[in-house]
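Entry 14. Two folds queued back to back today. First construct below, sequence then structure tokens.
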Amino acid sequence: MSCERDDVAAVIFAAGLGTRMGSDQPKALLPLGGRPIVKHVLDSVVSAGIRKIVVVVGHQRAQVQRCIGNGVAYAEQECQKGTAHALMCAREALRDFRGRLITLYCDVPFVPPDLLGRLAAECAGPGVAASMVTVELEDPGAYGRIVRDRQGKVTAIREAAGAAAEQLAIKEINAGIYCFRAPLIFEVAAEIAPDPVKGELYLTDAIAILAGRGHEIAVIRARDPSVVMGVNTRAELEAAELVVQGMRRGE
């Protein structure tokens, strides 16, 4: 499903350092399948028919921009203060935008274009302020858990570090891939308080704020965990390389 319309835009978060890789190289430029990892994300966004793209850069931004080139807008996040802060850095580049805004990480390389199209379509539903991708894992580990009420509606995303025992037992996790109504999301992001432990502003908190105000949160459950796999460590990069090889063999 393509979202080739002017009322759908995308923001790609690509300001990170990738310190867990043990390298000074920007995370966006990590080599995956012989190409910078951010290029895989951009391919999916472009293939989904999204024409308005903003890339949030920070660490070694000139190098990242040279790699990506023209065809996108850039926003700068001088200090990495969290995903909600990164989105706010893109606000000026989207000051006149009124529509649905997809947010993606530069290190989640296998999100298929049709999933982005479905995400945008779900966000267009009556009363829906956001749509998000989740996946069920047998071992959710450090991923944020999806909290639902008795009616099954999403009410919040609870990070593992601050989750209660019953929340840690939840197997449905947040993939970190969203579509929000704009400019509403910028108003909400501006209200997000710093995390009490790390002091960062997390976009995950926007879900609880929107749900608390009576907005619907639509959910797409990904059947294949690989489509939402993130690459934060050397082990995860090696696992991603195996996925790339499998794709090239048609597996």
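Second construct, same run, same settings:
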Amino acid sequence: MSSCNSVQAPMETRLKLTRESTTPIVDTTLYRSIVGSLQYLVHTRPDISFAVGYVSCFMERPTTEHMVAVKHILRYISGMLHYGCYYRRNCTDIGVIGYSDADLAGDQDDRKSTSGGVFFLGSAPVSWHSIKQPVVALSSCEAEYILATSAACQVIWLGQLLGSLYG
């Protein structure tokens, strides 16, 4: 994949994969190895966290369709090697800013929504997540409310952490 054509997004828009795919099964060990390496890379690349979390749901029985999605992430990384988290030593603005979003029933298998968010300390990301919600939301408003609750908990935790560091 070192000489592949790069892409501009880590995942195709509106990609919907299912566990019950009819395409041929691929080498499970190879699939798990690649996805495991990508999960390690997420620690410094929040831009791929949703896509990696999405493909990691299919590690039990990966198919060709799932491997194509993983290769798409690898193509994105090959074109965006200069991306990552950069932290400046002398940052004067230390305010916490957060962004979050949720979809409604994004998982085709169990109809659960996915929540995601990123929190910045100044201009650098310090916390990010992409996780399937624990319950099935019946409306987009409910999915956003569940997300807002978890985002508020994250902000409180970050505030307490900063208070203990600077206090």
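Quick look at the second one. Residues 1-84 form one domain. The beta strands are 96-102, 114-121, 124-132.
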